[in-house]
Amino acid sequence: MSFLLFQGSVAIYLLSAAAYLVFFLTKKTTVRRIGRAIFLTAFLLHTVNIIVRYFEAGHTPITSHHETVSFFAWSLGCCYLSFRWRYTVKNLGTFVSILVVALMLVATFSSRDILPLPPALQSWWLPVHASIALIADGFLALACVGGIMYLLQEREIKTKRFGLFYSRLPSLEALDKLNHHCLSVGFPLLTLGLITGSLWAKQAWGAYWHWDPKETWSLVTWFLYAAAVHQRFTVGWRGRRVAILSIIAFLAVLFTLWGVSFLLKGVHTYVS
Amino acid sequence: MSRDTIVLLGVNHKTTPLAIREKLALSAGYDEPLRALGQLEELREYYLLSTCNRVEVLFTCQDVEQARTCVLERLFAHSVSREELDQHIYQYLDDKAVEHLFLVAASLDSMIVGEAQILGQLKEAYRQAAKHRCSGLVLNKLLHKSFSVAKRVRTETRIGASAVSISYAAVEMARKIFGDLAGKKVLLIGAGEMAELAAEHLVGQGVASVIVANRTLQRAVNLARCFNGQAVALEELADQLQHVDIIISSTGAPDLILRKEDVRPVMRERRNRPLFFIDIAVPRDLDPAINELDNVYLYDIDDLHNVVEMNKSERDKEAVKAYRIIAEEKLKFSKWLANMESTPTIIQLRTIVEDLVRAEVEKTMGRLEGLSGHDQERTEKLVAAITGKMLYRPLHYLKNDNHCISLPDRINTVRSLFQLDNGNDDSESP
What we know:
- The structure holds 2 protein chains of 2 kinds.
- Chain A is mostly helical.
- Chain A has 8 helices and no strands.
- Chain A has one domain (2-263).
- Chain A is 77% helix and 0% strand.
- Chain B has 3 domains: 5-162 and 315-339, Glutamyl-tRNA reductase, N-terminal domain (Beta Polymerase, domain 2), CATH 3.30.460.30; 168-310, Rossmann fold (3-Layer(aba) Sandwich); 342-417, no CATH class.
- In chain B, helix 5 crosses helix 7 (137-156), helix 7 (137-156) packs antiparallel against helix 14 and helix 8 (166-178) crosses helix 9 (193-204).
- The interface between A and B is medium-sized, with 19 and 21 residues.
């Protein structure tokens, strides 16, 4: 059942990304409306998929690699919609939908077996810690997308060579505001994710901090974002520098998510 | 035969980069260059136009090549090398020159097609030329015609209504940088007309306040009053940069007034809030290196031109109409010009006859200077009367339509009869 739902939502996400891409190139607003409707449909289907999987597995489905990435994609969609609801950022949908599709494809090609939950993980901390951390990642991914858009747009304005992006991307201010919003929501969530993780670790393994690779890299990521937030809110960095920092920090997020799991083994490795 | 050729030499934003235009621009006003041209024997009538986008000189002469060399020598030799100049300058003769002037006047050749400022600049240039008595029969007629062509284009097409102006482009760029302009502050450096226009546009977009800095404070105060703004002295510029977001600079200063080093410390104090500099002055007021700073964007007049280019297709339809009007008017003017070809002949004829008469009168009456004022006046009248009587028939022959003999033939007859071309090198103008 959840398999079918997942497959369906991937297909519809693909469709919406295609529609957004068509809008990006042709600038026809009707296409955007269609793209948005399709994206919303896919998102709802995806939500249902996660709920169904919860009941099928009997625990929060954020344990296997497939589940994590799928939930990551879902949280990105969630963050995008939450932001979209408050501000309009022209063509953000195009970039976000492509990223969501990429994540969903990664999820598609990883094992979808429902794994029995090891006893250490059986706790109500699981949904709290994992979902907070992944939703934080969603906002940070959005900050990264905004950063990429900012750099693209800024380059065209700065060099005065107006190409593909100039007319299609929003104003620098809007993109900077996106970054501001995402950092100011994403960073506290990331912090909360670390704290809940450490509390859970205390409960499960008896110590707050183990220095296993995942924890270490989470801390590295946290410091990177702390630097970005500090520079942004106290030193007054904005624009290009913060955009670059957001992109670098998000690469650290991706490494924490994948690099650590596949290259370095630790408590968090899902397959163990 | 020897009708004067109308020659137009110039550079504009299409042929020449800003860096060169800067050097060519006659920033010191028209007086001096007009006087310099006046010393050239080759030119009969001449006039000069210098705006931020173009420098053009229009003149009538006999020998085009020689006149061209002299004019370029006089006007530009001190600023740009000959080779560089030849590479950028364009030259139009007769019909082409007329057409070009009409295009300029009608604002079809402008950087911003349809903007109205060029006509004012043209009129001012003409006023200067008239003041120095540089323009004669042909140029007077031609320039007056160009004004009426411009007016016709303006009323019969919508080219002005859809004019995408520099100020419009500036607003669009500002919106790409700031998103919403509400609450932003504008600083005008120099109280020029262009700056005023751009500021007006920005205020229309909801800009919060306008600050004017000018060398003469009185003008700053006057302009600031129009926008309910505030006037400051030019010396306070660096302080003001902290508070404003958009800076439009259009002073006539020959040097840079703001450098990269002036702006860098400001950004720290602004906490990196973006600054948008618009430099519409020629020569430039702002150091191009300012653009290299983070969160600072500098656009000069050529950059804005590119912005304008992007949304230009809208106006092209109206432009077609305008080009038709200009073609019509050009035809009319050529006809007039053809009729006027006899004018140099008439003038030459008059001089020759008058000289002969005067010589004879002088011989008889002794030295004319010795006469009392009253008598001198009488002899002058006598000379004029004899000349007039003698010339009446030949002139009548020249001017009145004759169905059997065309005008050039009649001119030819008169010229050979009076041997007007003897002694000249008889160069035939194209």
